[in-house]
Amino acid sequence: MQREYLENKNKINFKFEQNKEDFIVDEIPLKFKGNGNFLILQVKKVELTTWDMIAAFAEFLNLPAEKIGYAGLKDKHATTTQYISIEAKYEKALKKFKHPQIKVLSATRHTHSIRMGDLAGNRFSINLFGVSQIEAGQIEKLARKSAKNGLPNYFGYQRFGRDEDSIEQAKAMIAGDLYINDAKLKKFLISIYQSQFFNDWLKERVLLSRESNGGKFMLLEGDVYLSDEEKLFTPKNIPQKDFDAHKVVPTGLLPGRDVYRARATAREIEAKYDDEFLYEKGLRRAALIFPKEITFDYKNHFDVLNVAFTLPKGAYATVFLENIANKNFSAKGLNPKKK
User: Fold this and answer.
1) Among the options 26, 75, 118, 223, which is catalytic?
2) Is 75 annotated in the active site?
3) Has this prediction a pTM greater than 0.85?
4) Domain locations in the chain?
5) Fewer C-beta neighbours within 10 Å, C or N terminus of the chain?
6) Class at the top of the CATH hierarchy for domain 154-286
7) d(CA 83, CA 73)
């Protein structure tokens, strides 16, 4: 499942580790009302999955985990902050909540529970090791270029499991060769199946762009675009000016039912990565994202470069790093914590 990037350049062999000191993620929330029947908690967790964090609150309050809302899943091997929602009637009890890996940073009110996707994006701060002064300059240049021209919005290696065996399970289940009763697992495997189609489609579009458009993402007749107002549309004329201004972005297909599909030339490629018989609801995902607010802090005597950046929801920080390194990472190749 090789991921290709828009520039076919030399590799930069930095290292990074997913641990509480060197991989920090802060969720950027949508606006909260400040009043209502739900309590919104800003929570910091260390070396803990989102599910484990929610389970800790559920056990303490003696309520089903499904009653706790959250916007997205955050890395386990990291220090992360995110927002969760709980009915306001638990506010008094929550003042006694204590956990060695969880800290409640703030609380406010809102009119409804947080739902999956209710976030603006994520802010990352990651330490890169083994970076020379020359490489630090190269990394900064490449990062700035991705902010201008766009970064392929692949699903990262985390999506497909540590051994990347989840996709085989998904294919077997959809083919009818593997029966799975657990509804959550079933939905998860279908999402992996859809994600693989998207990644393979994006890889072909990236390679086409490298070969025929000088490394800038090549727009095709019939592409489906996502506007900055989050509306999908297929224009009569390719909106190159709007694309250059980051007002619209082409999208790729996560196959399924009731989803808008590409037309003309764009559909010729998309059709190779489609499953029109999949009953699960289909979606479209931005083909490119534009990293924002990129900053660097180079520790010259230690060959460590800290890079901080903001990505929209659903985007992977490790894809940003792969784009700079011009190589694929995997869960097996990373140290989860320092020893």
Assistant:
1) 75
2) yes
3) yes
4) 1-23+127-151+294-307+314-339, 31-117, 154-286
5) C
6) alpha beta
7) 11
